[in-house]
User: Fold these one by one.
Assistant:
Number 1:
Amino acid sequence: MTTTAAPGVTVRRVPELDGLRGIAIALVLVYHLWPGVLPGGNIGVDLFFVLSGFLVTSWFTGRFAATGRPSITAFWVRRGRRLVPALLCVLLVGTALALPTGEPLPARLGPQLLAALTWTGNWYLVAGDTGYFASFDPLWWQHLWSLGIEAQFYLVWPLILLGLWRVTAGRPIGARLRACSVAAAVLAAASAAGLVVGTVAGADFSRLYLGTGTHLFGLLAGAAVALWPRRPGAGTSPGRPGAGYPAAAVLLTGLVVVAVSARDDDPLAQAAGLPVAALLGAAVIATVIRSPAGTAPGILRCGALRRLGIRSYGVYLWHWPLLLTARRLVPEPGPVPAALLGLGVLVLTLAAAELSWRHVENPVLRDGWTGAFRAARTAGRDLLSRPLPLFAVLTGTILLAGAAVAAVLLSPGLSPLEHRLGR
């Protein structure tokens, strides 16, 4: 569907971006579930950042053209509807999973939950001097650092964007958008430069990687693409593959090269590879949205990949606690069992993400908080007339909540490794 808000500003849903999101989560899954296969697969997170920056800023460009002054409150409400329901569900179930997987319990579950709920997971890791790439002792909610950076961007970027819009008042809308796009690109370059210069200077790479200012380049690169005006109707009509097709294919190949070569044990390779991945991702988006509809590389239009992309947020949330749970249950698998363990975690992750999408995320996105609560109340009334399902639901909820609370209360302040190191 395409909505033309004003001359030079076209806002539409681009199905191929779901395919790109699917590629991003696939890179992350391979990176975590089968370590060593894609040493730089963590660039998938940076692809997510680029896509998020593009999508949220596209909402603002449409509102700029339509109303002249978007509501920041409305934006934050929309983001809350997208991010909060699945996060709360995963935090509850994932924390409960920590209890029955043996002693000792994961360390500092309470503070980690607080950091997750306040969108400060990245700074919690920095303050705790926890190296993100230290795979021998990962935290239970370590992967939520990226949500922290995104949420902080969502908090500040709309204010900056509105400020830029005011500064450029009086110009034609196309000129205003171009000026904002250039500003976003400059900020992205400054963020990437901070990461590279800090790494070359010998700073702790984990702190640079987790820091908001030095890892905003992907979000800002996506924002720059969204702000650059394009002709009305661009990419909306079917056409034959033109220059955009091979360009997008080359860019996607470049992303795979970076995922293979930007090793996570080489800070300089990471410092160079992450901004390159963000730039390639932004270029893919720019190419796709300006090409005739249906002419993007086939992989971006693959139904299974697009389906994975639509559910990628839930997949990202679920895969990490399920992986750590599996590793606690099978602490020292051989090479073949480890590969099978990853496959089992993948199956469970996809199943959990599907349930989350159908019963938690999509109802809130589709009907809003009020509609979702109304549907839940109706379902609750139906359960009251069915004793056995009602008993099962109540018992399961009580056990789940009890296990989560017990895991938090019993969680130690230090992990076994930290005890041995005398921290």
Note: DSSP finds 16 helices and two strands in the chain.
Number 2:
Amino acid sequence: MNRPYERRDNTLVFTTSHSYKGYESEVVMIPCVDQYITGDGQILANSLYVAMTRARSLLAIYGLTHGSTVSRRLLQTISDCVEAMNSTPSVEFSTSLQDDLNDILDTIGVEHREWLVDCWQRFEIHQEPIFAIDGSILAEPLFWFPQDGELMACFDNASYPNVQQAVFQGRQLTILKPGDTI
């Protein structure tokens, strides 16, 4: 019967995916998903897509795992998709030493590669701001490291003039220029 759906609270609607095209519901249940297969073994992808995309909040899919090869493949694909959606992605939390070096070399110039690698090998390099005792940011160098009770910091050329006034607020800081002897 070609009549529009009447939406009422506490009502279940049972229909085909084709007749529900253009509608949506909070919850959609697809029983017998393993039956979305033609007689010649093709998956009814368009119909299944329509059925699956009607759900706004919850999609429940049910099927039998002992059907044909095609139905088992369909169920395995759906299972793999659910697992991928529910798994925590692998995220790289830090960059490599090579990436860090290249980022700094892009700023100071590749002619200072040897100097920078030497600094990285000899000192405990930090690439975050330098904070004042009150917690405010004192300076934002490209990198810095402690040495003999001092902080040694290398800045890009653009921020160097602004740093000179800020760095001497109670912190002993030596400003390094690329290539300086340490």
Note: The radius of gyration is 31 Å.
